[in-house]
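Quick check before the chapter quiz. The format below is the same one you will see on the exam, so make sure you can read both the input and the output lines.
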Amino acid sequence: MSETHSHAGPLSALRLEERLRDTRLFFSQALRTFHATGSILPSSGALAYEMAEHIRHRTDPDGALSILEAGAGTGAISRGIAAAMRPGDTLDLVEANPEFAAHVEELLSTDPDMSRIADAATVHACLVNDLGTDRTYDVIVSGLPFANFTADQVKGILDYYFTVLRPGGTLSFYGYLYTKEVKAVIAKREDYLRQARTSWVVQDWIDRYGIGSEKVFANVPPAWVHHLRKPENDLRS
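Here is the expected output.
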């Protein structure tokens, strides 16, 4: 009888175990705090890759980037950011959920994708607005579930992003496809109207500053990724 051998080595097994651990942690927290996570599964590698678009393709090919990830979760998108980073880049990872923040901190020493950028990364266990305005960024990657927030909360977050984003810098964020249509059918009227007002705020920012949007179907659920650029003449601070 012939034997079937796995081609997955120790590194592949370690990565699989990390992903499974991420999923278990994310799922357990999502059941408790769905308002803050916005999903019951971590983001896919395909979504992470698209979110890191402006870290891979930078305006100055030789320049170092200062990067902010807001809503790092269990590190699913953080891995895509880490893969795109180059020597000299720095990364602030912000996560308000203390269990998620501790998990991401651990990944910086245990995960093969994350450990390579450990010396350039700092985890902040706080709300992103509480990070302050004493630092600025070339790229912001946001995993916050805008659809779960009020219009005023989303406007406050976007205003904060554009305050700490350098002129010419980029903001990337995502939202799930068909969320509004589904809520129109199953949600309470007040919840649907709250999300509709939120979507108007988001769309206004996309209309004013958007430089591209991509659909990512290889995610559960499928998502839109939106890329915005702060104008060079926008000197808000």
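If your answer matched, good. The CA atoms of residues 5 and 201 lie 54 Å apart.
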